[in-house]
């Protein structure tokens, strides 16, 4: 394998390849799959979103699976920032001294975000932070921050002032104008964007005539999210200079290439791990062959094409 071919440089992140498990799909690297496999082969690991206090999550069932995607209403279950900083992070870092780790931050208020961001950053164990302003599963936190451009700017700039780490703002697709939200993050000083979080959705079981998840509505993810992610990443890449980590429906190396063609500079994989727990490893293994098939020397080459813009071709 030619390591340089897949290598990616992003603010604060030197990645050997562009593939990382998305927040919420890999815990704190403490699940069975993480413990039984070599995380050093991944580009980076994004940790479960962390809040100030521990959260037990929403009523069961929290996850409903369908052929075309997954509805989840997990509700940011996590042990709280203190336990993450004192136990989860040191355990992962001791095992993987060189693995790029991205912490994910959420809160019920702007102050909460700042406290969590500061404590995660002060641990000295992370390379970057992701601001989750886009969780649809928490009534008092998350998505309400990510649908208001002024709040995105304020939150981003306050966190940026507070921490000495690159900050990636994870945008919500549950908005009318995604470009406005991306510009708001840029205005606040974001170093990059992660796009997209789940779509706010609902499913009803015809047999039980009950909502498919305990919290009635939840976040929709998986293959059927991909066209929305591609469209939003493409629109933002045309207008905003920040690097974009693409996420939403990726399950193959071909999907990674498509994300790059839309304007992403790295990718995250979430729901694909439900059907293939080793999806990230398999996608990485397939990437070079996919590049060969398309006669491409590197992923960066693909990313450069985006700057030309398909929209110019549209009448
Ligand atoms: C079960 C589950 C839990 C998730 N938890 C989080 C989370 O804690 N923080 C976050 O930013 N996104 C979370 N997400 C969203 C994913 O990180 C990702 O943005 C989304 O699922 C789209 O990607 P995918 O189609 O590859 O899953 C979660 C998604 C799922 C399915």
From TrEMBL:
Catalytic center residues: 135 (nucleophile)
Signal peptide per UniProt: none
Binding annotation for FMN: 23, 48-49, 132, 170, 196, 222, 248-249, 270-271
CC cofactor note: Binds 1 FMN per subunit.
Keyword Cytoplasm: yes
InterPro entries: Aldolase_TIM, DHO_dehydrogenase, DHOD_1B, Dihydroorotate_DH_1, Dihydroorotate_DH_1_2, Dihydroorotate_DH_cat, Dihydroorotate_DH_CS, Dihydroorotate_DH_I
CDD domains referenced in this protein's UniProt entry, alphabetically: DHOD_1B_like
Family matches, as SUPFAM superfamilies: FMN-linked oxidoreductases (SSF51395)
UniProt keywords, alphabetically: Cytoplasm, Flavoprotein, FMN, Oxidoreductase, Pyrimidine biosynthesis
Dihydroorotate dehydrogenase catalytic domain ranges (all copies): 6-291
Pathway: Pyrimidine metabolism; UMP biosynthesis via de novo pathway
Family indicated by similarity: Belongs to the dihydroorotate dehydrogenase family. Type 1 subfamily.
Functional description taken from the UniProt entry: Catalyzes the conversion of dihydroorotate to orotate.
PANTHER family associated with the record: DIHYDROOROTATE DEHYDROGENASE (FUMARATE) (PTHR48109:SF1), DIHYDROOROTATE DEHYDROGENASE (QUINONE), MITOCHONDRIAL-RELATED (PTHR48109)
Protein name according to UniProt: Dihydroorotate dehydrogenase
Gene (name only): pyrD
